[in-house]
Write a structure and sequence with these properties.
8-stranded mixed β-sheet, 4-stranded antiparallel β-sheet, 26% strand
């Protein structure tokens, strides 16, 4: 009886110690690198690994993955961006501005093995970390260009390149660089779209920029769709194009993509609850231009 009591005490102490370690475990920085643009570091928090940028005022997560399920999408905005494929199923050529951990590029490659992707990232440290810690895949058809996104697009114009899908996901840790927000930049990006191509932009769901962004996208593209949660937390994903599919075509694409996207943890039925149509309309908000784009202030 006494022996059993001692065993129970030891077992309780052991369990309590393990539980205490689990509860108090802190994220561990496994990689840190100072680049020309920001502090780049990788942090492990249990099963979750995140790429983070640290700039003047804050630290922000740029990309995360579950180490046990690397294909499963972590962030809502990434799920929303992938859900935008219902507006352009089976893209053959894609341009992604802003690499992060390479999640979008990897997932598109998994979905469409023959796809061609140009990934553009200004910071070589981000590319290095994406390859070494997030399994970012580069192939003969999936290429990385270490370059400012706007410079790449200007040069792509001269080469007369055309894309089915353009994804704008550049973020410096505090805000989207102002030269990637303007009317002129969006016009340049639009010129690279095929007639049935779409542009998907990751923006903020709540900031003083919100209505200025809407006014600017409306000015260049007209009507568009947005995907965001109604509580204004997180990000807003905009879907624009030279022309957008009708509801029947979108529904057909959604049915075909429902199961493939589910393998990445993307629930199309849930996403559809957050999609709204935003018609072009006159507002008092000023369009962002190369002469007026105070992103860092707004």
């Amino acid at each position: 009886m006494l022996l059993n009591r001692k065993l129970n005490v030891l077992l309780f102490a052991f369990t309590a110690a393990i539980f205490s370690q689990t509860v108090t475990a802190k994220p561990v920085v496994i990689k840190e690198e100072r680049s020309l643009y920001q502090n780049v570091f990788v942090e492990d928090d249990g099963d979750k690994r995140c790429l983070k940028f640290s700039v003047k005022r804050r630290t922000s997560s740029q990309s995360c993955m579950f180490k046990s399920q690397p294909k499963k999408v972590v962030f809502n905005y990434t799920k929303f961006a992938m859900s935008a494929l219902v507006f352009k199923a089976k893209p053959e050529r894609v341009l992604i501005i802003g690499l992060g951990g390479g999640t979008l590029s990897n997932n598109l490659l998994d979905l469409y093995p023959e796809i061609e992707i140009d990934n553009v990232e200004i910071d070589p440290a981000v590319v290095s970390v994406a390859v070494d810690y997030f399994g970012f895949k580069q192939t003969a058809k999936v290429k990385t260009h270490i370059q400012d996104g706007r410079i790449f697009i200007k040069r792509a114009q001269r080469k007369k390149l055309q894309y089915d899908l353009i994804i704008l996901d550049a973020f410096n840790g505090e805000y989207i660089p102002e030269h990637l927000l303007t009317k002129e930049f969006l016009q340049e990006s639009k010129s690279l779209l095929k007639d049935d191509g779409i542009l998907v932009a990751n923006t903020f769901s709540s900031s003083k920029l919100y209505h200025h962004e809407s006014a600017t996208y409306h000015d260049v593209f007209g009507d568009f769709y947005s995907i965001r949660k109604s509580n204004n937390v997180g990000n807003r994903v905009l879907v624009v194009g030279k022309s957008l599919l009708d509801q029947q075509a979108i529904a057909t694409n959604a049915e075909a993509l429902k199961q493939p996207l589910a393998t990445f943890g993307v629930d199309l039925e849930e996403t559809f609850e957050y999609i709204t149509f935003e018609p072009n309309k006159v507002t008092e908000y000023r369009v962002l231009t190369d002469q007026y784009s105070p992103a860092n202030l707004l």
